[in-house]
Structure formats: structure tokens, C-alpha cells
Specification:
Helix content is 29%, strand content 26%. It is α+β, with helices and mostly antiparallel strands and 191 residues long. It has one domain. Helix 1 packs antiparallel against helix 2. The two termini are 18 Å apart. The structure holds zinc ion (2 copies). One zinc ion binds next to loops.
Length: 191
């Protein structure tokens, strides 16, 4: 598998690094025996002084995402009800119904994952950890979909980080790694 890359640059200084889409999965092994699997987020690590993969442990972000997915599910269910009622319901909209069913299954999974993550985020002390050095001195980066600039983080020079999708970076093949962490984000093992 070949993976596209992009560059991360700073709008205020000459900081530049490569973004590599490395497939990292995180599995939280909770003390009550549950396992919650998820992806990682993008952020800044103050200890590495670099752009880094971090845990998705931002309570506000998780909450907003959960609310918006729940709204999406409500709309999909409502639409499903509309398609299912009426005289011709068995014959019409067959492919649309199948698509909706699939969408609902995906939403159910995402909502369960977000709910589990939010529960962990609420009860733990450390913030989102850097997946390189495990420090929790991190900041979440959300790149704006139009300008590609992350306005939620200010670099030490006062500038903002921007992602540039010019596929100029090295294309590296990685296998998927799964990091197993406890609820406090402490590393337990890798698969
Ligand atoms: Zn800078
Ligand atoms: Zn770090």
C-alpha cells in the first residue's frame, strides 16, 4: 500500500515538516474490561516541538462530534421512516433504502466509539498524549477545509500551521499499527 503525503508549513516562520498518513489505530483497554478502538488526531507536541499524531482525547471536540453524529442519525432514521411508509414502499427506493441502512450501521458504530471515548476523556487526568514521546503537553490541530490553516493553534513565532496537499513528500509504505493504551493513555503494548 502506498500512502499519499503532504507538507505542513508555518505561516510565520520557516518551520516545515512532512505529513505522512501513517495508519495508526488506538485500542483503549479499560479497567472494567472494555476495549474501544479508534484512530488518532493531529496536533502539536510541545515536548517534541513538532507536529505529531496525538490521542483523540479532547472532551469538547468529542462532545461536538457526538452531538452532530446523533443529529445525522436522527435525520437518517426519519428519512427511513418516510421511505417505509406508503402504498408503494416495497417496490420503490430499494437502493436508497439499502444505502440508508448501511449509513445507519456506520453511524451506530461511530456513535458507540465516540461515546466510549468521551467517557474516558471525562474521567482521566492527562490531556491527549503525543504518540511519539507520550507527553500530554499537546494542542489539537484542526485544519480549516478551505484555507487548510489550523486556527486553533499558534506556533511559537505567532504564525499558524497550514497543510499543503502537493504530494511532494516521500511516499512510504507502512503497515497498520495498533497501540494498546489504558484509560490514562499509558502505553501497554503494540500489535
Ligand atoms: Zn512558526
Ligand atoms: Zn511528543
Amino acid at each position: 500500500m502506498s500512502i499519499d503525503s503532504a507538507r505542513i508549513v508555518c505561516t510565520g516562520c520557516d518551520y516545515e515538516t512532512y505529513e505522512v498518513y501513517r495508519p495508526i489505530r488506538i485500542r483503549y483497554q479499560t479497567t472494567n474490561g472494555r476495549a474501544i478502538e479508534t484512530g488518532c488526531a493531529k496536533g502539536w507536541c510541545y515536548d517534541c516541538a513538532s507536529y505529531s499524531d496525538i490521542e483523540r482525547m479532547n472532551q469538547g471536540e468529542l462532545h461536538d462530534e457526538l452531538v452532530s453524529k446523533e443529529r445525522e442519525r436522527l435525520e437518517a432514521r426519519h428519512h427511513q421512516d418516510e421511505l417505509n411508509c406508503g402504498f408503494l414502499s416495497n417496490f420503490r427506493h430499494r437502493s436508497e433504502k439499502r444505502q440508508l441502512q448501511y449509513q445507519l450501521e456506520c453511524l451506530n458504530e461511530e456513535i458507540a466509539e465516540l461515546g466510549g471515548l468521551l467517557e474516558i476523556a471525562k474521567s482521566r487526568k492527562p490531556k491527549a498524549r503525543c504518540l511519539k514521546c507520550w507527553s500530554d503537553r499537546t494542542a489539537l490541530l484542526t485544519f480549516d477545509s478551505e484555507s487548510n490553516i489550523a486556527y486553533d493553534f499558534k506556533h511559537e513565532c505567532g504564525g499558524n500551521l497550514q497543510i499543503i496537499h502537493d504530494h511532494s513528500g516521500p511516499r512510504i509504505n507502512f503497515r497498520v499499527s495498533t497501540y494498546i493504551l489504558n484509560e490514562e493513555g499509558e502505553f501497554l503494548g503494540e500489535e
